[in-house]
Amino acid sequence: MFQNLRANSQIYILHKDAKPYVEVAIITGVTPPKPKYPVGIPQVGQLPHLEMVVDLTAQVGGRTDTYQALPAGAEIADFGQNGNMVISCSREAMNSEISAMKQRSLEIINSVQYHQGVIAGCDEMLNALNPEYAEKQRQDKEISDLKRQMAELMEMNRQMMQQLNVPETPSPESRTNKKVE
Fold it and tell me: Where in the sequence does UniProt note compositional bias of the Polar residues kind (predicted)?
C-alpha cells in the first residue's frame, strides 16, 4: 500500500503512450495519510466516509517527481490528466496492469476483421437507402482508378523513353523559359 512506503522503496510507473514503457523510481519522501476531501461536521449517528491519500516524492531517471493524492490503501492507481500513467508499489500489480493492457490491444487487433465487415455492411445499407451516396462512392472509385492508371501509364512511358535512350521531354515551364538561338 502506498501509505506503507518509506524512503528508498521502489515504485513502478507505467506510461500508457503509443509505445508504453515502465520506469522504476526510488521513493525519497511520503506524506502521512490525509483525507482526500475536507471533512465537515458529521451529523449525529453518521460516520464520515474518509478516503485517505498520500503524496509521494520519488527519484526517477535523474529527476525528482511528486505524485499527489494517491489512495493511501491501494497498491496501484491511475495518475495523470487522462489516466495515461499508472503508479504501483507492487511489481505483481504492475505485471497484471501490463498484461491487461496487452490483452485489450490483442482483442482490438482480433476484432479488425469483424469491424471491416460492419463497415462494408453499413456502406451497402447506405447505398441502398441513399442513391446519391452510391453515386458519390462510384465517382470516387472511378477517379481513384483513373489516377492509378495515369500513374502507371506515365511510369511505362518513362521506362520506354529510357529504353530508346531518348532524353526526357522538358516540362512546359522550362520550354517557355529557353532562349531561341
Answer: 162-174
CB atoms within 10 A of CB 30: 20
Q: Dump pLDDT digits (tens) for 80-124.
A: 878 789 999 999 999 999 999 999 999 999 999 999 999 999 988
Backbone angles phi, psi at 70, to 5 degrees: -80, 140
Q: Give mean pLDDT, residues 31-51.
A: 73
CA distance 13 to 22: 5
- Report the amino acid identity of residue 135: E
C-alpha cell at position 83: 489516466
Domain ranges of the chain: 2-35+49-109, 114-163
DSSP, collapsed to helix, strand or coil, labels residue 166 as: coil
**Alpha-carbon gap, residue 158 to 140, rounded angstroms:** 27
Give the model's pLDDT for residue 170.
Answer: 62
The answer to whether the pTM exceeds 0.85 is: no
